[in-house]
Specification:
Distance between the termini: 36 Å
Oligomer: single chain
Strand order of the largest sheet: 1-3-4-5-2
Number of helices: 3
Strand content: 35-45%
Number of strands: 5
Largest sheet: 5 strands, antiparallel
Length: 129
């Protein structure tokens, strides 16, 4: 596994009708939605990782600020940098920019998991309901 502090990832999108606050139910305006920004932050972190077959990562925590609105048609870029590794726990610094400047910042935590046992445990949760 090629995992080290300082590894970086990116993700980008365009603000369109489907990722606005109005469409996602997080507000009434046609601007880039906070849930869409969060998903882009997570995607940037995932894109930094090259995990072995049978492993993946899951997001467990976010502490973010959405500091500026972005209008329809704008390009949005998220960056993630791995800043801490504690066994299977990974902490990323995340930032998001549109064409005018920074729109979001925060920290994101992920855990490395073994896919099969994780999915088995998840399936068992469903059966308990």
């Amino acid at each position: 596994m090629n995992l080290y502090v300082g590894i970086k990832g990116q993700a980008q999108t365009i603000v369109k009708d489907s990722n606005t606050a109005k469409a996602m139910g997080s507000g009434q305006l046609e601007v880039f939605a906070t849930p869409a920004m969060v998903a882009l932050m997570e995607e940037a972190a995932v894109n930094s990782l090259e995990l072995p077959l049978g492993q993946s990562s899951v997001g467990t925590s976010l502490d973010i600020k959405h500091i500026a609105a972005t209008p329809l048609g704008s390009k949005v870029l998220a960056t993630a940098e791995l800043i801490e590794i504690d066994r299977r726990r990974l902490v990323f610094s995340v930032e998001v920019y549109d064409e005018a400047g920074q729109i979001g910042i925060g920290k994101h935590e992920r855990f490395i998991i073994e896919v099969e046992p994780f999915l088995a445990k998840t399936k068992n949760r469903k059966q308990e309901l």
